[in-house]
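Structure in, sequence out. Go:
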């Protein structure tokens, strides 16, 4: 098993088997049902416009499915860049092995084990939510419970709410479209979080090396600082890779996060089947939690990039020779520009931006709730 396969584990395996990286024909075939469902859902929700309640119920599901589908095409479009990114990470690991960096390799192994446990936990939570959603829909299909599709759809000339069309659409949604779309969303999210977390690990490892040069001889410290400069350049390149790969997907996450919380709160006030409501809230809670974690990790990425300059300045460079001292300004100078991850290259992803989105979300919730209560009165 390569280091990338071990680090990114099941998320990389799923995206590779789905054909996102090198088998685009397979991926395109797999995406046909979700795309068709999105079109049919958009037609029913925004063209037919049966009632406001239905628009609210479908809004975040359609948004999530659309974002996931569009993100899949972005990954396919940038497939070579993703493969280059994985090769870049693999070469770093091989370089550590070649240079005999035992401490870094040990820390890398410990970090990878923690990541695998976290990714496994996320996969288990995903499967629990999916299993519940599929079970409820299967029961509804055979006549037990609330007779409703996961996402309401319509198409000119076809009535999906009479037998056998309803049963076929219900089976398609719960046995293929919902699982494939949801796992695609989570796998991309998992890949993104792991990539950012690994970048934080690289920066902390560099800080550790800078802080532990005080007890070295001049020759050892000189060799160490040269490696640190190379490591810092590698981290900057790593950030550039991530910004190119995940910026567009981050923008989509930001957009959908502003919709989901207020929609679910409004949805909870409606007359709605409790089993379907529980499934909706589970999905929304997972998306909101994962989005918060995403912003928090991205914010830590920026903080750790700034800490590199502090670690370089705090080492005993004053007591070192002239050749050693000339490398310190290189690290401090390169650290002056924050290594920020952005949403579509427009706005940096940090906790300040997160709070701004929360405030905008509350405003949107107020508007939707007013429209709902005004329509009921």
């Amino acid at each position: 098993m390569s280091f990338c396969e071990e680090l990114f584990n099941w998320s990389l395996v799923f995206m590779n088997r789905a054909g996102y990286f090198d088998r685009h024909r397979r991926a395109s075939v797999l995406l046909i049902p979700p795309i068709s469902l999105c079109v049919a859902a958009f037609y029913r929700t925004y063209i037919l416009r049966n009632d406001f309640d239905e628009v609210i119920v479908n809004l975040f599901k359609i948004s999530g499915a659309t974002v996931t589908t569009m993100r899949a095409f972005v990954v396919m479009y940038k497939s070579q860049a993703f493969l280059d990114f994985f090769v870049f990470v693999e070469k770093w690991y091989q370089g550590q092995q070649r240079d005999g960096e035992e401490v870094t390799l040990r820390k890398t192994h410990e970090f990878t084990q923690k990541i695998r446990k976290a990714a496994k936990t996320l996969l288990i939570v995903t499967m629990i939510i999916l299993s519940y959603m599929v079970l409820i829909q299967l029961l509804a299909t055979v006549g037990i419970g609330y007779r409703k599709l996961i996402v309401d759809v319509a198409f000119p000339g076809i009535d999906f709410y009479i037998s056998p069309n309803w049963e076929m659409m219900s089976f398609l949604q719960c046995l293929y479209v919902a699982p494939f779309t949801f796992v695609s969303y989570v796998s991309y999210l998992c890949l993104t979080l792991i990539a950012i977390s690994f970048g934080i690990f690289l920066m902390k490892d560099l800080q550790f090396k800078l802080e532990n040069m005080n007890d070295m001889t001049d020759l050892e410290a000189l060799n160490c600082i040269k490696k640190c400069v190379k490591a810092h350049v590698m981290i900057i390149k790593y950030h550039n890779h991530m910004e190119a790969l995940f910026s567009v997907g981050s923008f989509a996450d930001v957009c959908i996060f502003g919709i989901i919380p207020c929609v679910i709160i409004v949805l909870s006030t409606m007359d709605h089947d409790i089993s379907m409501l529980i499934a909706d809230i589970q999905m929304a809670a997972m998306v909101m939690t994962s989005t918060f974690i995403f912003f928090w990790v991205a914010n830590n990425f920026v903080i750790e990039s700034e800490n590199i300059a502090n670690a370089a300045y705090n080492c005993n460079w004053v007591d070192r020779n002239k050749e050693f001292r000339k490398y310190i300004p290189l690290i401090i100078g390169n650290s002056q520009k924050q290594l920020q991850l952005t949403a579509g290259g427009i706005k940096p992803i940090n906790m300040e931006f997160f709070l701004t989105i929360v405030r905008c979300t509350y405003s949107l919730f107020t508007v939707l709730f007013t429209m709902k209560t005004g329509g009921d009165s």
